[in-house]
Structure formats: C-alpha cells, structure tokens
Design goal:
By secondary structure, the protein is of the alpha+beta class. The chain contains eleven helices and seven strands. The chain has two domains: 81 residues, Phosphorylase Kinase, domain 1, CATH 3.30.200; 200 residues, Aminoglycoside 3'-phosphotransferase, Chain: A, domain 2, CATH 3.90.1200.
Length: 291
C-alpha cells in the first residue's frame, strides 16, 4: 500500500493503520473499491457538489494521473481525505433534494424492482449452497417472506413527483461521511437504515426508536415509505451475503434471528404510531399477533 501511495499519489508515509494514514496534517484512507466502477464519475461529481455547498462529506482525491481509481494488482483503490469523523446525528442526510439527471446512475428508489432482483438471486444461490449453512436454511424463508411483504406494499404506492435526496447504502459509524457510500433515494432511506442498525446493535430500545421517529417531520407518503423500508430485512440479507462470501461466521446471524419477535413488536408499534398520523395499511399477520 505504501508503494501505491508513493507511485500514484507522490505520498510517502511511515505508517498505515487499517488503510488509514496521516499526511500533511490530514487524515486519509485508501479504500479498496469493489463496487460498480461505472458509478465513479457520478460519485466524484456528487462529492464535489456537496463540498461546494459546504455539506459534511469527506473528499475524493485523484491520483497524479488525474484518475479517480487507481488500479494495482487487479484491485481498484480510491483515496479519501477525511474531513469529518462520525457524529451521532442524521441531519446532514436530508438537506439536499436531487433533480440532477447526471446522477441517475446513483438512484436506488425503485425498491420493488431492486428487492425482487435480490430475492430472485438469493433463491438461486440457495439451490447451490443447500445444507451448507444450517442457521440460514432454518431462517431465510421467514426473511424472504418479510421482503415479499415489503415488495408488494411498495408496488401498490403512487410515487410520482416524490423528491429524492442524498442518502447512503447503509448507515454505520464508518460510512457516514464516506462519499463512496452515497446513493440517491427517498428521504426515509437513511432514517430506516439508522433505525434498523440501532435496533439490531442494541443501541436503541423500542421506546427510544418510537420517540426518535415521533420527532421527525415527515410528509404523509414518507411515513408509508418508512414503514415499507423497515419491513424489508436488509439487516439479514447484508449478513447473509457476508456469511456466504466467507467474510463472517454463520453464528453471527443468531443475533438477528433472536431479535425477530422484538422487531415484529417494533413494526407493530411504528404502524400504530403512523396510523394516528396518516391512512396507512398494516401487515395483517404482524398486527394480529400484537393487537
């Protein structure tokens, strides 16, 4: 990694700690980029736009060959200068509405289609890993069912002229200001992923989540979209992918499974809260458990 920095960025450092290093009184990170390289130009444009408007975000740095991506030993790297470290709030996520057509490749608002593709691919995979992961075999149909509920609900909605916002693939302490994690989506994407992440990491109780949601100012359609997004078990599928790619122990999924009943209870409480605010449909099998 030191050789990459030296040759491609004219940066000489003595020490690198988990991709992070200090140089010229700044903190940097050299990320290995494993996603769609066709999105890089749009991410760079979005990054510059946010910086020009003083929106909190870290900065993508081009190499000395004026390239965003540095390819070395068949791996792609991108250098990021750290302007901001984690702060425990989401206010920065909802500032900017995005009608910019040049950034269409970053849109992730067609949830029904994207989720359906995901489920189809998982079901295809399951035929090839049958009986390899017992915990997954015993639990995944439940989460596919939740996803199908979310897909059906989303596909019923009329979402013409709903504004899109700068959002994140997921919300974690490590990606809050990472420009490589940005997508364009509905306002509630970040809220929902923050809630799911907080719940399954035992960072917020059901009561605290309800209190948090109650303080957020949302339009009517946003309440419904938030409920739909919370139905979709991204928390399970993210962990599933790590497990089958040998990046996580299968036992980690026990934590998710163990909290399934409590999460159903949370969904019911959120539905009950939203029903007092907007005309919203519930999921019968969940509501009937807790009415």
């Amino acid at each position: 990694m030191k050789n990459i920095l030296n040759y491609y960025y004219n940066i000489i450092v003595d020490e690198i700690d988990n991709e992070y290093f200090s140089y010229d009184n700044h903190l940097f990170c050299l990320y290995e980029y494993k996603r769609n390289i066709n999105e890089i130009d749009s991410l760079f444009s979005l990054n510059n736009l946010m910086l020009s408007r003083n929106i909190m975000i870290n900065k993508i740095i081009k190499n000395i060959f004026d390239s965003i991506i540095t390819n070395h030993d068949n791996k792609n790297y991108i250098l990021i200068m750290i302007n901001y470290e984690y702060r425990d709030n989401l206010n920065n996520k909802f500032i900017l509405s995005f009608p910019n057509k040049e950034l269409d490749i970053l849109k992730r608002n067609d949830w029904g289609r994207l989720w359906s593709i995901k489920i189809d691919y998982i079901e295809y995979q399951l035929h090839h890993i049958k009986n390899k992961y017992q915990l997954i075999n015993n639990s995944i149909n439940y989460y596919i069912g939740l996803a199908e509920n979310a897909i059906s609900y989303f596909n019923m909605l009329d979402l013409c002229n709903i504004p899109l916002y700068i959002s994140h693939r997921r919300i974690t302490k490590n990606n809050m200001y990472n420009p490589l994690e940005l997508v364009i989506d509905y306002k509630v994407r970040d809220i929902s992923e923050y809630i799911k992440n907080s719940f399954f990491n035992n960072e917020m109780t059901i009561y605290e989540i309800i209190e948090y949601i109650n303080k957020i100012n949302l339009d009517n359609i946003d309440y419904i979209l938030l409920y739909v997004r919370l139905l979709y078990p991204s928390y399970y599928f993210d962990l599933y992918e790590k497990i089958i790619n040998d990046n996580e122990d299968e036992l980690e999924i026990e934590r998710i499974i163990r909290l399934s009943t409590m999460y159903e209870k949370l969904l019911f409480e959120i539905y009950s809260l939203f029903k007092r605010k907007v005309n919203i449909l519930g999921i019968d099998w969940i509501n009937n458990k807790y009415l």
